[in-house]
Amino acid sequence: MNFLGRYTSIIITTIIFLALVIGVLGTNFYLSFQTEANAEVVNIAGRQRMLSQRIAKSLSNVNSRYQNSRKYTQQLTELENAAHLFNTTLLAFKNGGVTQSTKSGLTRLPPVSESAGIAAIEDALVLWQPLNASIGEISLSLQETNTAQNDELNSQLLSTAHAYADQNINALLGLMNDLTNHSESIANDAADRSRLIQTVGILASLICFTVIMYLILGQLRVADLARQRARQETDQIFETVSQGLFLIDREGAMGRQQSKALESIFGVKLDAGRNFKNFIAPLLSVDDLTKVERYLKLLFDPHKKQRLLVDLNPLNKLPIQIEERGLIKNKYLNFTFNRVSRDGKIIGILTSVADITNEVKLERELAAETVRNEQQFEMIKVLLSADGELLPDFLKSSSHTYEKINNILKDPARTSLAFKKKAVSILALVHKTKGESAAMGLNFISSLCHEFEDEIEHLQNKPSVSGDDFISLTVMLERLMSTNEQIDSLFNALNTPTIDKATPNSESSDTHSSLTELAQSIAARQGKKVYLSLAGLENLNLPSSTRLNVISMASQLLRNALSHGIEKPATRVMRGKNEEGKITLALFEENNHDYKLVCEDDGNGFDFDTLRKKAFANGLVSEKDRTQLKPNELLSLTINNSLSSKPSADQDAGRGMGLKVINDLTKDLGGKLALQTKSQEGSRFTVRF
Amino acid sequence: MHRLMIVDDSKLIRHKIARQSDQKLFDVVCSAANGEEAVDMLKQFNPDVVTMDLTMPMLDGIECIKQLVEIDDTVKILVISALNDKATGMEALEEGAMGFITKPFNENDLRIALMDMVIED
Amino acid sequence: MMENQLKIFIDGIVNYFHHTNDSSVFVGSPYLINDLDEISSDYTGSIAISGSYEGACHFTAPSALVRHLILSFGETDTSESMISDTVGEVANTLSGNARQKLGKGFNISTPTISKGRPCDTPTRADHSRIYAIPISWKSYKAALGIHLN
To answer: Cβ A468–C129 below 8 Å, yes or no?
Structure first.
């Protein structure tokens, strides 16, 4: 339909052209007959001229021969024949009819229709008919027997006819000449007309042909343009598409049209017609190459569902190495395959290759980021429960220690002994950080330090130590340093102005607010309610290290009181107490440089029965001693042997470290620890230093 | 309605496939817990479509596919396997299965895959 | 993992000196530096590492050491270009050794040689530390600088 529409004008003009050609040829054919017929008419008319002369001559011959008594039969026959032919032809000119042709046989003449012709014929008939009658009489009379009477009549007839002919024959000749001329002009007119018709026909055909050529060329040009544009578009697509596109045929050969990106993806120009398998082979293991072959076979199998083959694609996220300007680059490529069918037959596979390196990298970074975030979250959790105030001091002191360790590592050494000496000095330094981080509650650091110590121990046990035995230590040192940096950045992030400080002008009230925050976060975690009353912890006029210890002690006491002392609201209500527990934490300066830190809660008090059971369960006391242990002895056991009254360990307490840490911290301060407690009423810790 | 047979050694997966297959298109005629059962049930129930696990006790998926195809070469087999090994998946297709999807799958994956199995390309 | 890679590079350098007529090469304990300048000597051969890990390995040595090394191989030409070539050759050996042992996922470039301060590789994150491994051979001191992210 479309086809017809597009070519309608061409088809119509072609039909016109053919009709014209046929018309011109047909007219030509007809006119050539006509011309021939006209020529015959002219010839016949010309013959009438000649016949009129011959009649006059034959009549004269017959007359003279008859007068001189010579034989005249032949001449008479000539006269008769000429007169007969003249007469027949003249009548045929007038009325239309058959006469003898100038060539051979007979020919039919049309009646003359133009007035000039008709006039000539009418005039000729007037002149001719008496002569013709006379000739007829002569002919009859001469055939009769010669008698004297007869002879005279004959002679008279002849001379009369002869005289009539002499007198009129020239006029008759003139008239026949007119007829001839007249016919000739008709024939010429006809010839002119036919030439004109032919010229016009040929001209029209030529015009028509030109129109056809114009239309066809226009149509071709349009088609060419469209094809060229389509080609350009395809080329543009192939130039700009970021994926590598090409076809694979049944034989595994790669198609001629390939997108430009293909070259940049693979770093080399690909030859058309190259076998895909050979092309991909250097990028794959033998095993994978077999899989590709098998997969392509499945793709060409019409019984397999293309979409249900996608999961088997062996070239999905394919890692490859490509050399670019001397550097080997790692890339990830994704191949996708789509069947190309024609008439229900799979004729090829459209393959697109995408460079997904960035996506894979992002994916990995995201995964790494997730891990990092989890680690940071862990750290934040720890940092929140650790003592924010002391962190900068801790970070400063530990970084300093790491620097020292690094310098020890840097010191030149050659002998095994020298290396072992290094290890010993490093051990002392790490141990210090381990203790500090444990006191801060930074368990991930203390466990790293612990690993560090283990490694040193392992090193010390070696019979001979050299420089490369320190590799692991250096790597761990790097981790410790990075951890410090991470904590530092986290700490800075947490302490940026986004967290409003209640009283930003005083350094010590920071201590108060961080202790309050700590108390509330622990309480929230444990489903408890607490009111914290603080006193004397601001304006600590103490040396930095003592201050660190005091605050560390205060937070540890607070943690302890909340975890072990304060009961859950329901329990408190049952015991007739206020739903909200109360903890008082206060520092007093008793004498000059003598301090007293008191932590008091209205909670559980010490549950000596549970502690007795635990002490027994841990094998610290015998069955018999168990019942006889005095509270003081029991407390001392608890402090020194990491007993916890909490049934299970959690983030805040339960490992039995709490009291031990308090005890250790007291020792560090060079102070004394006192404890008063009453079951279900509360406890009071007093540290004097 | 297409007659569907489910082959999987996990009861949970069998139920999941039965529940999630399009009820308007598929009639679950039987389900088999291993390859041998599958072969018996194919003869008995004459299903059009089979979902096939690859790792099963008694008779594994590949062997099962071979036998099923031998009995009825018009049966359409969709492999649903957790196998990370693409080579085994390909082997299943080479032995006569028509399609492959990986476990775990969601309802949509399964529906589309089953529909692909019965629609002419 | 990190330990293994450091070990591979250290072994590589030790092996190299074992092929000289004076095989007494000492490796000091590794330590950390923030800038390659802290260890860089007259000549430095660098290999870039890409792939699963990104980073670089640098071998830096004073020209006297390299000259001595050349002589110990029986060569007499100790011109500057020869010294460059030799440092390159050490780095190349290190790279080859590492390529062999680290396998897939590690791409190791061909070495670049620099005189004086070496060019830091662009892949090094600003604050990542460099492992410095002191090496002594005869009375000379050289070093390896390695960083991997």
So the answer is: no
